[in-house]
Amino acid sequence: MQNYQLVLASTSPYRQQLLEKLAIPFVTASPDCDETPLTDETPEQLVMRLATNKARSCQLSSPSLVIGSDQVCVINGQIIGKPYNRETAIHQLLQQSGQTITFYTGLALHNTQTEQTQVTIDTFKVHFRSLTPEMVARYVDKEQPFYCAGSFKSEGLGIALFERLEGDDPNSLIGLPLIKLIQLLENEQIRVI
């Protein structure tokens, strides 16, 4: 891979599992980034800024291509964060019942040698079934999606909550848009296949 190491600026096991699909050696680094939204910042601006900041925040000694990614979930114009507990997860899912929510995933690839950063965004829509409180409680108790934006794991039992999915890359919903990442890597002369 030329003279670059590939670095994933994330401690998320989900993003690591996704990147492993590309069969390219990589290391992880913990980004140093304040994730507080700015006043009047749109969800799209927020995820692009945070993805860029994460990719640029890692202090590395060797030439690297650093991947930064950030995601928000939006319902009725409001950013929905991670629930962190059962009560909030149930509340979020009941709020999403019968609704369409949008995930915005920002993706940045920072070249530490050239100091150039490519940034893009992926949008994915989730159309929810009508959910009963009993369905939601059973789901939350089985999968405990407390650290997932929107309170579900689409790669697991969360799929049972949906009527349909709408987007270009299902990996984006989990947190790392691989199709767009492959394009950014190719712009840096890194071929996956």
Characterization of the model:
- The protein has six helices and seven strands.
- α3 (86-96) packs across α4 (133-143).
- Helices cover 31% and strands 27% of the residues.
- It is elongated, with a radius of gyration of 17 Å.
- By secondary structure, the protein is an alpha/beta fold.
- Strands 1, 2, 3, 4, 5, 6 and 7 form a seven-stranded mixed sheet that branches.
- The longest helix has 15 residues, at 43-57.
- α1 links the parallel β1 and β2.
The ordered string of helix (H) and strand (E) elements is: EHEHEEHEEHEHH
Structural class: alpha/beta
Q: Spans with pLDDT under 50 lasting ≥5 residues?
A: none
* DSSP, total strands: 7
Report the mean per-residue pLDDT as an integer.
94
How many alpha or pi helices? Answer: 6
What summary fits the major beta sheet? Answer: 7 strands, mixed
Name the beta content range.
Answer: 25-35%
Helix residue percentage: 25-40%
In angstroms, what separates the terminal alpha carbons? 12 Å
Q: Estimate the global geometry from the Cα principal axes.
A: elongated
Q: Taking Cα atoms only, what radius of gyration do you get, to the nearest Å?
A: 17 Å
